[in-house]
Amino acid sequence: MMQLSLSIDSSLLVRDVAGDYRPANADEVLQAARRVLAGQMRGCEALTSPQVVRDFLRVKLGALEHEVFAVIHLDAQNRVIDYVEMFRGTVSQTSVYPREVVKEALARNSAALLLVHNHPSGVAEPSRADELLTQTLKSALALVDVRVLDHLIVAGSAILSFAERGLL
Q1: 103, 141 contact by CB (below 8 A)
Q2: What is the DSSP letter of 91?
Q3: Whole-number Å distance between alpha carbons of 71 and 109
Q4: Nearest to 113 by CA among 82, 89, 90, 136
Q5: Which sign does the torsion angle of CA 79, 47, 59, 94 carry?
Q6: Alpha carbon of 118 to those of 29, 81, 103, 135: distances in Å?
Q7: How far apart are CA 160 and CA 150, in angstroms?
Q8: Percent helix, percent strand, percent coil in the chain, to nearest 5
Q9: Helix, strand or coil, per DSSP, at residue 158
Q10: DSSP-derived secondary structure for 87-148
Q11: Mean pLDDT highest for which of 21-30, 118-127, 137-146?
């Protein structure tokens, strides 16, 4: 039986393939946090807690060094169907194709979407391109009766909501 020293008593532990426990490394802790937060979101009651969404997005996108554009698909009661990272870009930009976003929404039978992307720069302010993209996606999705509820920009621990800013 493995003896735990006092220095790791407060650490999170993982079991290795031999069945012994060892302190979890940072990546293992973050992966576990992502699984827990994704579980809280997927199939949950209607999204009555913006904090759950924000916490999930901070963990999922806040520390990335490249841009990612993702979509949270929702049903008619605003329950999460799926979180999909659709496009990956560089440190300062991502190409987003409205046709692909519409195809994904139809494939999942989404009634509404939350658009999400990160700014690795740490500055959450939307660019003019972000605003134009949001309007283009909103218009394209409206043609197939899918509502865009918000567009969130994650910049480290800061998250900007287009809906709260009146930009939607």
Answers
A1: no
A2: S
A3: 13
A4: 82
A5: positive
A6: 21, 21, 22, 18
A7: 10
A8: 35, 25, 40
A9: strand
A10: EE--SS-----HHHHHHHHHHTT-SEEEEEEE-TTS--PPPHHHHHHHHHHHHHHHTTT-EE
A11: 137-146
Q: Calculate Rg over the CA atoms of the chain.
A: 19
Residue among 74, 57, 53, 67 nearest 130 (CA): 67
Of the ranges 25-34, 54-63, 96-105, which one carries the lowest mean pLDDT score?
25-34
> Taking a C-beta distance cutoff of 8 angstroms, is the pair 24, 33 a contact?
no
> Coil, helix or strand for 116?
strand
What would the pLDDT profile of 129-168 be if each residue is shown by its tens digit? 999 999 999 999 999 999 999 999 999 889 999 999 999 8
* Interatomic CA distance for residues 20 and 36, integer angstroms: 23
CA dist., res. 107 & res. 29, Å (int): 33
d(CA 77, CA 72): 14
Domains of the chain (ranges; CATH) run: 13-165 (3.40.140.10)
Q: What is the residue whose two structure tokens read 């827990």?
A: 36
All residues at 6 or more sequence positions from 79 whose CB lies less than 8 Å from its CB, including other chains: 43, 44, 45, 46, 47
User: What is the amino acid identity at position 89?
Assistant: G
